Amino acid sequence: MDSNGSGRIDWNVWLREIREIGFTNTLLNFEPNNVGQIDLERAHPGGLAQLAAARTGVLSNLFRDPLAFSRAYSAAKRIKQRAEILDSQFGIKSLGLVGGLVNLEHDGFDLALPILIWPLTLERKTDDFELRLGEHPRVNPGLVEALEVSYGARVDEGLLLSLLGAGADLLPISALEYLANLAGPTANLETRRILAVGTFATESIELHADVKQNETPLLRALAGLEAEIQRPTSDTSPASETLIISDADIVQRTVVARAIAGDSFAVETLPGCGYTQTVVNTIAGLVAANKRVLVVAPRRQTLSELADRFAGLGLGGLAIRSESTWFDVIAAISRNEKAVASNLDAPLELRTSAESRVSEYLDLLVKRDEKVGLSVSECLVALAKLSLMARAPQTSARIKPQYLLDESHRSSALELLYQAHDLGEFNFASTETAWFQAKFDTQAQVDEALELASRLEKTVLPELTNLLDSFIRKSHFRPAATVEDWGVYLRLFVGIRESLARFVPEVFDRPLDELIAATGPRTAKSELSGSSRRRLKKLAKEYIRPGMSVGDLHVALTAANEQRQAWQQYSLNENKPEVPTGINEALIAYQNFVTDLASLQSHVDDDASAKPLLKMPLLELAKALSSMAADREPLENLEVRNALREQLREQGISALARDLANLKVKREHLAAELDLSWWQSALEYLVARDASVMKYTAEQIDSIEEDFAAADSAVNFESRAHLAYELSLKWHKALADHADQAANLKALLRTKQATFKSLKAAAPDIYGNLVPVVMTSPYLVSRELTEDRFDVALILDAAGTTVAENIAALQRVEQVISFGDEAIAAPGGFEVECHEYSLKRERIVPSVHSAVANSHDLVVLKKSWRPNGQALGALINREFYQNRILFAPTAAEFLGNSNLLIELITSGIGSSTKGTSAVESPDAEVDRVVSLVLKHAAEQPEDSLLVATASKLHADRIDQALRIALKSKAELEEFFDSHGREKFEVTSVASLSHRVADRVIFSIGFGTDGEGRAPEIIGELSAPAGRRHLANLLVSARNSITIVSCFGSEKLQQGGPLNVNNLLAEVLDGSKLAPAEEFDEDPLLQDLSLRLAKLGARVELNLGGQLPLVVSYANKAAAVLPDWNLAGDSISERVRLRPALLKAMGWRVVRVHTFELFADPEALAIRIGESLGMQLTKRPQTLFDVPAFDESDEAWGDRAESNDSRLKNDKPPHWG
């Protein structure tokens, strides 16, 4: 904007844009307009007199001729509709009656200026309109300025208004004469009488007059004159201390922090990504930082949403709206009076403590060990990946920690394993040969062992078995199981033989415990008296064989008693202990055999888990000896094998080699087996070094996360209470310091009317504390806030307005933050007055949002927090937002339910509207929309509804048909007056502006031609802004969109302006989830998904690129959130906000913890399945029905211990 090359702002550019607001300005250049005006000069005199006297009248009384009434009625509908659009979308109250006209054309000025403007309301009364005039007319500010500039004449507005009087004439001749005389005798201005109802706006005149042309750094930057783009200069990280009153993600917190730091920047608000909550938090943060805030937005719904959000958070009246000033001020005072002290420090400490515990656990999973350079999570993922292989490795061998520290160890170890495989080390398992991992130093040892094994197997073992089996049978002992059992039996036989040599056989007839006690040493605890001991000793000596001498009777009796007990243990009957003949020869043969086995044992594998030969069952021992005698291949290449085994030991993988041999692993599987052993050993090493991760159970983790979520929510709640209390303290201090102003304020509020000007005039020192935030339309700033200054301006819906339109706000601040979305809005301007053909902005003017983004910085809100998902989300994201929106699919979408409904009309296509194309506004489509609207009003009145169409004519016909239909359905009228700012509306897509409703009906408004083809030009969708209109429409629905069409996608002609037809074809094809992009599969979740699928559940990994694993069964769906893959940039997002959003989206949230899944994935899969209603755990079933009491024994007088059952079973033999 440096058109003159002076390095200064060219104000003429912005001033010209301000003058072009509304395209034409009837208050500066009045022209009669039958389309957008009602000329009351042509009204019936009686009706006009009544209107002037009573200030109210009906249109039918003003125009009594049917044709004149019809024209006036049509104009009234257009005027009222335009006035409502200007009021709701731009904050401009334009409906009025202008009276009198001053024409300056004879003096060379192209000006025809109405004199007075009466505020007016138009209320529909069945088939008529009622006009209500306001009591206080205004003097046209354009007239005041024009007369002063052109003639130097100052209009005394008070005097002029006083000339009106209270007579029946709205515009007395004296008012015209006053103005004619005011310009002086040389002036040739013409005054005449007019009375016209229409839409008239003074805002552009006031904005133009308000421009002070004072250059500020902010305005120079927006004009493109600053040399450098402003960047954050202070600590604006989200970790900075900022007051947050509503849930916010990390980007939203960054916006708040930067705002408080004083940065100017733009915020791109992608649909559903927390636009309102970001603004709410930003305003609260700025107020807490003692900054005055000016919030401007053309759309009234935007400001009302903010006011409602603050009220819902307990901060009603924090931001005061210009159109509801008195109401909001009362809410602010009420809040200030009710506020109580709040302790924000306590919940902050709790949250910090809980956050540290959650972070500690999550950090443990990803913390890298300083020695091995690995984390627990990496080990678990690697192990899970191995388990998913087609042939999963199976080894249970471990590698010692010292070998894990050297990464090169793995490659050398694998090379050794390959050599071992090639040498045949893995050809035989321990179950296939007794020489598995045999140890020999020389070939001579091998030959000796082979010969010994052969001899033992062929002769020694069979002979010894026969000999000892005969002893065992004679003694009626249990058969021996092992060689070790033979030794036990032989030692028992020898002991008994020695005892029978000392004692008579009767010594084994009874226990000898008392005799043993009597012959033993005397102790203090002995219970035997001296006489008893003498008697028992005498009895014990009677067991000694005559002529025998026993040196230690106590020891001998103890041995005999133990032999007696052993005999009873091994014997199969109650025969007395006896000694078989030939026991000496058998004992010698056994000892020689054991010695030979020990010789062989010294050469076999020394694995601790292998059974020694002595302990082997005799059949296994026979097989082992047979194997030793016959197997020679495992003993070949002995020197090479010994050298290789030594290398394996040095590398710490000898145990792994032994296990691989047992598993008979093929060469191509050796690497996987080594990896399994290595990663499992690494995991155990990490846990051994820091076992703190093992102290967390699933229940403990859930408890920690619940504690954090509760504390995080409490901080938000207490932050709101803290802010309310701080504002309350300032309020009470201001009242105490300025009691006189407080009285003035009280008197003003009793009138139940207030403006910012009147509030500031009544209590200038209280005003700032009472009104820290002002919310108004950018077009009203110059009128409402004449002398006010602010620290920062927040420009909302900024993509739809220009710098010039916001200049009044921008010149009152040093900092600006704009919020906007250029995909759905552009500064296209608006018409103040209706014309037969709509006017458009001739030049493309950049938005204030793009100006702020280009001159300063841009932050993008791209995480969707919309709980109902987004109809046609994939199309919207791809076509309008370059796939930047991060939104998760809803459970309903995954289950096949869509929030997009297609109502296809296949019959009755055609329009009865005269003078229009036969394909525009088909009757059948009008009827279908009316029936859908009435159905919604009857069945879902709690949801707001919006009807949009691509045809202005179609919108008018739907509106007319609805009014006719409602005449017979009076019970539904309440719905059409409900929902406040989201009141039911039928509009064209071009008229939409950031409009939001729970449900949207999009009626295309065009049918097919005689050949069944859809038109190439589809109304407003085919306009230059058609793509933006379609985008705005699609993002307007909070819950669902219903599309009513007379043709399917196949009937649409390809292409069309801006390729809109192709987009519309995709819309008509219905909603589909975005195709899954390629992603790195998570082995742990992949394993879990396979288990869930086997249980009968439907599973999908990485759904929409946002949910790592989802599972459904029947009509229930769950989102599985593993703790190593939690989405979010902060603990709050990961633990609380994200799970809460998914629950709101219909998902059952299942938190999965790393070790829980790794330890028992099957149990976890069953738990998830059962949570979805799957019957997986077998429950014990009752085998027999429990009999009723009447059928029990007690009921018949019998005792419970009746003999009935015994008698039933005690049958005589001949019964069979």
UniProtKB/TrEMBL annotation:
Ranges of compositional bias, category Basic and acidic residues: 1196-1216
Gene3D superfamilies registered for this protein in UniProt: P-loop containing nucleotide triphosphate hydrolases
Disordered as annotated region, ranges: 1194-1216
Official protein name in the record: Unannotated protein
